[in-house]
Design a protein that fits this description.
Blueprint: E1 6-9, E2 13-18, E3 31-37, H1 39-49, E4 54-61, H2 64-76, E5 83-86, E6 92-98, E7 104-109, H3 122-129, E8 133-137, H4 144-159, E9 163-167, H5 172-175, H6 180-190, E10 193-194, H7 210-219, E11 224-228, E12 234-237, E13 242-245, H8 258-271, H9 276-291, H10 303-317
Parallel strand pairs: 1-4, 1-8, 2-6, 4-5, 8-9, 9-10, 10-11
Antiparallel strand pairs: 2-3, 6-7, 11-12, 12-13
The structure holds adenosine-5'-triphosphate and magnesium ion.
The site of adenosine-5'-triphosphate has 20 residues, from helix 8 and helix 9.
């Protein structure tokens, strides 16, 4: 069968990282970057490296940060024809710092950047006409304009019998933006495959335990749920099966991008009809490769990298 074409819509940013754990942004300190980034951009970069035909509807400024991102995605094999270059607005930025407990805090410039002006251009429509699947990141639902494009993409793809995946990817810095919660609920209702982090299960349910939350979501018509559990791996649920797969034991260098790479690993396997277990293995491998490299896209692995990691860990277990 011909491989399915995967499309995402959302923010492209450069990421600039504090280099010291515990560093603050209230005084000067060492920074490293710019790195190509943005949750949907990391996701689609990972999908392309796994060989999936894929593209992105997005916008960048007419600046070096935009060029850096477009060239990175192009070199990974992403169809960049629907990434619009907008004069007069800058490419989005995200400054990130790390606390001692491993948590992260951000300073974002996204809604007021080129990403805030995403629209469905002719090139975007052409890409969408070829799409079999749309992936949505909750972090992309920061403005009514982007939500409108996401809604249109979902509508068109579903009308053709295509599918939708959704990773809520909540950043507390963004959750209270007007309309954000409503948009998250709307996309949740439209998705076939839901990919929350453990704690995100409860944002959308009345449940108090994981199993209760999963049952509630499946009852709403979501076909499959994949719960990401960081270093503990991930669990798949549908009406008939539950399947848990451990994470690979690797040294965590930089957690940024792990969830996005995991999502691409899972969705690409799911689109080719892999079993939940196979899909979780590929997804965990992509997540493990991502945490092993500094920089949001630095760890996106190819199919060969994924196979090598799985093979290496099989040997260790024997
Ligand atoms: P984010 O906070 O960036 O949105 P997330 O919550 O979406 O992240 P995580 O659960 O942190 O995603 O990570 C996704 C996947 O990456 C995990 O399910 C696991 O497969 C892999 N992973 C994450 N951290 C580690 C780790 N320390 N060791 C091995 N694998 C990891
Ligand atoms: Mg995430």
């Amino acid at each position: 069968p011909t491989p399915k074409t995967l499309v995402t819509v959302g923010e492209i940013v450069v990421e600039i990282m504090a280099t010291e754990i515990g560093q603050v942004f209230l005084e000067p300190g060492p920074l490293v970057g710019p790195f190509p980034s943005g949750a949907p951009a990391i996701f689609i970069d990972q999908a392309a490296r796994l060989g999936q035909p894929c593209g992105m509807i997005a916008a960048v400024g007419d600046d070096d940060f935009g060029t850096l991102n477009i060239e990175r995605l192009r070199s990974s094999g992403v169809d960049v024809s629907a990434i619009e270059r907008l004069p007069g607005v800058p490419t989005g930025t995200a400054f990130v710092r790390y606390a001692a407990d491993g948590s992260r805090a951000f300073v974002f410039n996204i809604p007021l950047s080129a990403s805030g002006h995403i629209r469905l251009t002719e090139a975007g429509q052409a890409l969408l006409s070829r799409a079999d699947h749309v992936h949505v990141m909750g972090s992309s639902l920061f403005s009514p304009a982007v939500v409108a494009v996401v809604r249109e993409a979902i509508g068109q793809v579903k009308a053709r019998g295509g599918t939708v995946s959704f990773d809520p990817n909540i950043r507390p810095e963004m959750l209270e933006r007007p309309g954000m919660r409503e948009a998250l609920q709307e996309i949740l209702q439209a998705c076939d495959l839901f990919l929350p982090s453990g704690s995100e299960l409860f944002l959308f349910t009345k449940a108090r335990h994981d199993a209760e939350a999963v049952a509630e979501l499946l009852a709403r018509g979501i076909r499959a749920i994949v719960v990401k559990r960081g270093a503990e791996g991930a669990t798949y649920h549908d009406r008939d099966t539950t399947e848990a797969v451990d994470a690979f034991r690797v040294r965590e260098v930089d957690p940024t991008g792990a969830g996005d790479c995991f999502g691409a690993g899972f969705v690409c396997a799911w689109l080719r009809g892999a079993s939940p277990r196979e899909a979780l293995l590929q997804a965990n491998a992509c997540g493990a490769l991502a945490v092993g490299a500094k920089g949001p896209m630095a760890g996106t692995g190819t199919t060969r990298d994924v196979h090598n990691l799985i093979a290496a860990h099989k040997e260790v277990r024997l």
